[in-house]
Every structure is written in C-alpha cells, then in structure tokens.
Specification:
Elements (H helix, E strand, L loop, with lengths): L15 H12 L11 H21 L3 H13 L7 H15 L5 H35 L2 H21 L3 E6 L4 E4 L1 H7 L3 H4 L16 H10 L4 E9 L5 E12 L5 E10 L1 H15 L9 H12 L5 E9 L2 H8 L1 H18 L6 E6 L2 E6 L6 H11 L4 E3 L2 E3 L3 E9 L5 H18 L16
Antiparallel strand pairs: 1-2, 1-5, 3-4, 4-5, 6-8, 6-11, 7-8, 9-10
Length: about 450
Amino acid sequence: MASDPRGGPEQGGPHADLVEQWTTALDSGARDHVVPMSRDEARALLHGLARRFDAIARNGESAERVADLGAELARAHFVGSQVLGRSISVLDAYFAQEHTIPKERAAELLGAFTIGYVREFRKWLLAEQESVRTADIQARRVVQEQLRASEARFRAVFAQAGIGTGLSDMTGRIIEVNAAFADMLGYTPAEMCALDVTDLGHPEDDPGMWPMYAAVLRGDVENVHLEKAYPHKDGSTVWTKINVSLIRDDHGKPQYTLILVEDISEQRALRERLHYRAHHDQLTGLANRSCFFDALTAAFAEPGARIGLCYVDLDQFKVVNDTFGHAVGDELLVQAAARLDDCATGPGRLVARMGGDEFVILIPNSHSEVDPLARCVRGSFARPFTVQGHLLTVTASVGTAEEYAAHTTADDLLQAADYSMYWAKAAGRIPARPLTNNPTAPN
C-alpha cells in the first residue's frame, strides 16, 4: 500500500515530536514510493529508529550503529526520490534544537545515517538489476510477465532514485541517466546523453581510475568502487563516490556499465578543513609543530639527504605585547610569518610556527643553503613593521644547523639549531623596547 505513516500506537513518549515531524515529512510532497506496511507499522518503525538514533547520539556510541538505522529505513522500501533528503532535514533540525549534541557529532551521525541508507539502497538496486538479467536468461515464454514487471520496477527505481544512476555502452557513450545524476552536475538528462564518459573526466581524477574503467569494459572485473571528481556545468567540482558495475548479455559478453553516484562534496570539504586545522597554525596559517615533525621525519627517511634547519625567534616580542597589547602582537606574528615564507622559496622548504614567537624553516635537501637563508631572514627583519599605525623595529635571532641524515638524528639536528639560535640571541642583545615613530604610542 502507499505509505501514509499517520496515526498509530505510539502517540506520546520522549520522541513524539521527532516522530511526528518525520512521518509528516515522508508523507508530504510527491508520493513516489511504495511501502509494504500499514500506517501504524510505518509509524512504529520510525518511532523505533528515532528512539535508537537519539540514544546513540547521547551515549556516544559508534556512528556505525547509526548507519544500521539508515540501512533499516532503506530495507523497509522507503526508497522514493526525496525520502533520504527529507529524513536528513528533519533529523538535522532536531539535533539543532538539542544543544546537548555537539554540531560535529550531529554531522558525523547524519553522515553515517546517509551512508547506511545509500549502501543498503545500492544493494537493493543492484539486486533488482540482477533479477532483470536473470529473468532474461530464463525461458522467455514462462517468465515473460515476470520480466516485464521486474523491468518496470527497475525503470521506476532508476528514474526516481535519490542517488545518481546512469547507463553507458561499451564505447563509453552515455545512454541514459536519471534526474538525480543530471541535477548533480547541472545538466538535463538529454544533455548528458549527448556526452561520452570521457567528457566527464577531471584533472583531479586518480591516475589509476581510467585503467580500472578499461578493465571493466574488457570484462576483467565486474565492478569497481572509488572516489571521483566530476566537472559541474558551471565549472565547479563535484566530489563523488561511485560504483561502476558491468552488465553482460545472454552470452556473457559485456554490454553496458551501470554507475551509481553519491555526492560527497560536503563530506570531503569537511574532511579537508579538519585536516588543514590539524596541520596548520590557526593564527599565521603556517604549518604547525605536528606538520613540521612529520615533514622532518620524512626528510630523515632518505639517509643520503643533507638536511638544513633555521630556527628563528623574534627579539623582545614580549615587550610588544606588554606595550601595545596582544592584538598588535598577533598581527606582528602574522606579518613576520609572511616575511619568513617569502624567504623560504625553493622546492620542499617548509616554514612552521613552533609556538609563541618561535619559527623554524626546514630545507629537506640542502646544498649549503642554510646560511644564505639565514641572511635573508635577518635582512627581511631589518625593515620595520607597520602594525595598526605603529612602526615597529623588531629583529630576529636566527640559529642554523645542517647535516647529513645518516650522521645525526632529527632531535639532535633540531636541538643544534635551537642552541645556535640562543647563541645568536645572546651575542646580539637589542634595546629593551622596540622603536616606534607613533608619537601617541607608550614610551
């Protein structure tokens, strides 16, 4: 029967509002899905999912448990074109009102729910396609009616699926795509059917992707799973997770390829932002300590490499903070980082903020380049800084160290550069206060 999840035995309880909103959302708009259960059964299913979802969110359980809930919704045949989107919207709004659930945790759970739903839906869709192929192999006279029904179901699912779906022939010509796939890339289905698969290549495609696709066309493998970047019609990039499966004819000869496409652009952007924040200093944008030590370890993985370090410390930086305030001090650090970055041109060089007013520059394959780099740093700091109307003269003490990886360790090389910096600071003491030409600045 058509899904109409209203009414039912569960009218109250702590999740009543969520269940009501969820059932209303799934029952609104276009009625393009069929659920083999009564209204009461549908409401009971959603009530159970809501209760378990909320419990997992609050108890800190694995997000994979939530993926099971998404799979359960798909297995109940809630597979209309808008079921997943409406469900995510309702759950997202619910968590936005629940201030006890952090946004990051809510995003993780909603992503897991989506993955579980799509994963189960993909299995179901492929099973439907397989039933079409199997029915075609059997005696046509006996199964003719069953085959027509199965093809009709597949066609309905193909057209109405909430994830992108497409068919192409063995020359790479796109034969058919559903609206979800076309909308994802900004085309109409007719426009996409005028393209070849290779027209949707992207500069960021994995180099091994096209050989894998060729293996599918040859019939060497039945399906492949990978991430792919698609060019949107407007020039932007859409990151996806795709599943390419081979369809054979009655004699086992490759005939078509079926592709299922899931848009993961937001998930990938979030992943990249988290990775950036984990490896960069939030104030200056330079690499942080963690990123620096990873790069230093990688440099030492080549015993024949000669590695150079410049350890930089701003002179009298505390005086800037005490005299002009931390806002000026932070801006000074940002400008200092930019000057260091300008000096550290060259392949593989990395500038990192170690903390406070200390920086380090790594030269992974140095050919006596440390001393010229140190002179560049000292020269760049000879010019005054203009910070919020103050003209500040702030110099830098620079320590250097350079050695073959086989002759030292990462810790010893860093310690040598650190000692060299402190000797440089001790040898070049500067006035207690930075100079400024601002007559209103404290003296």
